[in-house]
Amino acid sequence: MSRSVVLLVTSPRLPAGVLTAQAWDLVRAHPVLTAADSEQTAALRAAGATVSVVAPSVDTLLAALAEHGTLVWLAAPDGDEQLARELGLRLAREPGLAELELVYGSWDPAGARLLDVVTVMDRLMHPEAGDPWKRAQTHASLAHFLLEEAYELYDAIADDDPEAVREELGDVLLQVILHARLAEETSDFTVDDVAGDLVAKLIRRNPHVFADTEVGGIDEIIANWEQIKKAEKSRASTVDGVALSQPALALAAKLLQRVSRAGLDVPLPPPTTLGGRLFAVVASARAADEDAEAALRSAALAYMESVRAVERGAGA
Question: Phi and psi (nearest 5°) for 7?
């Protein structure tokens, strides 16, 4: 009868005991060996499996094979790559010893690494062993960092730099996770509440995907979104909820967009002041389907390069 070592790999990000039917059949039918006790070993024992903690070595496994014929090695979170490599090389040299089989008892679902982010943040926010700086922060003290990280992400997108976009998205995510973690202690909500609210909102506002609403195109999707949003918010004014901290040109453009969507006829500020004249420029840009904020930013960056060119010429 052929002897086999089954290398059972499981996801450390899923609850202990969440395994495939194949994995459960294996651990109930054969002895399970592993290098250390864990929540997973406790779950297996509770379900009736025989689990032993042994030294993680090829000789140990081969000795156990002589007694049991087939055994399951429950791998550590890193997959016990070194042990698997050494065992594979030994069996390749001596194929008659046993067969090596890899079985995935569970695997990470999409988004599983977000659980790692939450775990690391919990460690950083630990009252005794955590990071004092992070524990000293508040939503207010972190607010400017959120704006900075968002602008850095905007720059990476404008530069068409995928690697930078990836990094800056992580920095924005850090702000979200940190604010949510602070809220556990100050506002009685958690990152799960944040994620749950987002999921519910996405489902409500996309009935063409999650319900039987039919749409004729992008414009109708946007219209439905705005209609649902308006019903949810119950705002007294078209301009309620506009982010007032955004740059002034972007603020003016958002106000004009809200007014246009509401079908209102509201006169522009009189062009007798600088603010009025700038507002008129934003309105003109919007009528031409241009982004005044992005256009001014582009002009400012071009001016920066002109400054550097003049400085280089002066230093020649």
Answer: -85, 105
User: 221-253: per-residue pLDDT in tens?
Assistant: 988 887 888 788 877 888 998 999 899 999 999
Residues 7 and 28 sit within 8 Å (Cβ to Cβ): no
Q: What is the rounded distance in angstroms from the CA atom of residue 242 to the CA atom of residue 251?
A: 8
- Strand order of the β-sheet with 99-104 is 51-53, 32-34, 70-74, 4-9, 99-104
Q: What is the residue type of 193?
A: D
Count other C-beta atoms under 10 Å from residue 50's C-beta. 15
Taking CA 142 as the corner, what is the angle to CA 136 and CA 143, rounded to the nearest 5 degrees? 155
- pTM of the complete model: 0.74
Residue 122, classified by CB atoms within 10 Å of its CB into exposed (0-12), middle (13-18) or buried (19+), is: middle
Q: What are 74-129's pLDDT values in tens digits?
A: 998 877 888 989 999 998 898 888 889 999 999 988 998 999 999 999 999 999 99
Closest CA to 166 of 177, 156, 151: 156
- Residue 9's CB is within 10 A of a number of other CB atoms, namely 20
Give the DSSP H/E element, type plus range, for residue 148.
helix 139-158
- Say how far apart CA 14 and CA 170 lie, in whole Å: 22
